[in-house]
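Whiteboard transcription, Tuesday session. T.W. wrote the structure tokens on the left side:
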């Protein structure tokens, strides 16, 4: 700090240690994010202070942490691609990975009655199941076991791509085609209440990507940024706690979602802007589109839903699809209607992927090209908090504090005048008060 033309250096350690019943946790008081200025870091630290303290106290005081499992075995994202999301959830939950492999007890525990073996009690092993961008077909039995996990009150966060497109392929060829992603989950989701459409949502409100348009004199490539309509910037729904006060969410090759006739309550969490154009499969994707001026009149499809919350009771996707022997088999303990539960369906598997730069992992939602921080991580963590019943965490994370910093030059310029006012004015007021009393 600088005071009277002299400099003073002070070292501080911005951490807080909380201990409870032998358990200790360290709370960082500085919230540093990529792309933030020093003022931005201070502002973010103040905004997150209450949230960080609350979550730290909660973590040391809670004996039993909730359990979240990431599903594997169907071409889902590998751990390194979603590491920042996993790490964020690990602050609140015990995070595990699970492969069903058609095993009856993969997602649920079965307790058999010692007296009557025909009596079977089912208990879910996990509070929430995350299915992050599956790319291969689920077996019939795996889908059945997921269905029965839901029927017994299990929560699921679905991150599914109806169409698959790779930006990497566009680096080596002029164009590529979006191909259908056959996994089988679209069938059971249809019965739960949503229809995943095999299309791509393009939006005039979108992120920019760099394209080499020339070279500088030192042979370094000259990059120009163009709007890429396949990467919509989604403004979250402010009318729901999950998406309220969240920064725009960046999606990549997202598809639209329609609702179906099911008893579940449907709430839209993310929708594209009104300047949307829907491209139905098959879709030819080419980087040449970047250099072509987009005809705004074609973006007239209206807002399209890309993320929906389903809540309530669900009918089993396997109702009337099992043989009578299977339905009556006590060992299977088939349940055709769910307990009250919830799931969130997002028609984009890339929304959860963290990027890398020079081999270093970047925060989820950080665009390494534009250095812009999107709200992907906050939105997805909110989704899991909501599904796991931890709704009290969400408003604290989304809290906003407006910093009104002092004008240091003005302070220095008017310091003497305000010192005189603060010292002399009370004396004058007291003297006047004494004169009035004397009179």
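and on the right, the sequence the group agreed on:
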């Amino acid at each position: 700090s600088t005071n009277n033309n002299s400099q003073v250096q002070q070292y501080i350690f911005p951490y807080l240690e909380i201990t409870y019943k032998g358990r200790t946790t360290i709370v960082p008081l500085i919230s540093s994010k990529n792309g933030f200025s020093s003022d931005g870091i201070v502002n973010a630290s103040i905004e997150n202070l209450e949230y960080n303290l609350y979550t730290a106290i909660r973590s040391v005081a809670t004996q039993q942490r909730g359990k979240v499992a990431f599903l594997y075995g169907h071409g889902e994202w590998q751990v390194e691609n979603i590491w920042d999301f996993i790490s964020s959830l690990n602050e609140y939950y015990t995070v595990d990975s699970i492969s069903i492999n058609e095993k009856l007890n993969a997602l649920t525990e079965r307790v058999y009655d010692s007296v009557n073996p025909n009596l079977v009690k089912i208990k879910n092993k996990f509070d929430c199941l995350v299915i992050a961008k599956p790319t291969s077909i689920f077996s019939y039995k795996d889908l059945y076991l997921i269905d029965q996990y839901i029927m017994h009150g299990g929560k699921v966060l679905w991150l599914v791509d109806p169409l698959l497109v790779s930006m990497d392929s566009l680096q080596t060829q002029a164009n590529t085609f979006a191909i259908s992603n056959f996994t089988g989950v679209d069938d059971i989701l249809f019965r739960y209440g949503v229809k995943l459409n095999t299309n791509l949502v393009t939006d005039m409100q979108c992120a920019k990507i760099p394209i080499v348009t020339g070279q500088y004199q030192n042979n370094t490539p000259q990059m120009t940024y163009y709007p890429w309509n396949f990467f919509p910037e989604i403004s979250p729904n402010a009318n729901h706690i999950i998406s309220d006060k969240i920064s725009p969410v960046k999606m990549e090759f997202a598809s639209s979602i329609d609702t179906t006739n099911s008893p579940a309550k449907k709430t839209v969490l993310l929708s594209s802007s009104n300047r949307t154009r829907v491209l139905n499969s098959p879709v030819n994707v080419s980087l040449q589109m970047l250099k072509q001026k987009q005809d705004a009149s074609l973006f007239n499809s209206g807002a399209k839903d890309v993320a929906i919350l389903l809540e309530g009771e669900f009918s089993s996707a396997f109702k009337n699809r099992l043989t009578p022997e299977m339905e009556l088999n006590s060992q299977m303990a088939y349940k055709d209607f769910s307990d009250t539960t919830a799931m969130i369906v997002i028609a984009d598997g890339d929304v959860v992927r963290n990027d890398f730069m020079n081999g270093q992992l970047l925060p989820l939602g950080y665009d390494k090209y534009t250095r812009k921080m999107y709200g992907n991580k906050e939105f997805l963590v909110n989704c899991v908090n909501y599904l796991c019943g931890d709704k009290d965490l969400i408003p604290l994370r989304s809290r906003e504090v407006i910093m009104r910093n002092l004008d240091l030059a003005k302070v220095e310029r008017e310091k003497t005048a305000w010192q005189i006012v603060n010292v002399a004015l009370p004396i004058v007021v007291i003297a006047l008060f004494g004169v009035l009393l004397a009179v």
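Someone added at the bottom: The first strand starts at residue 2 and ends at 3.
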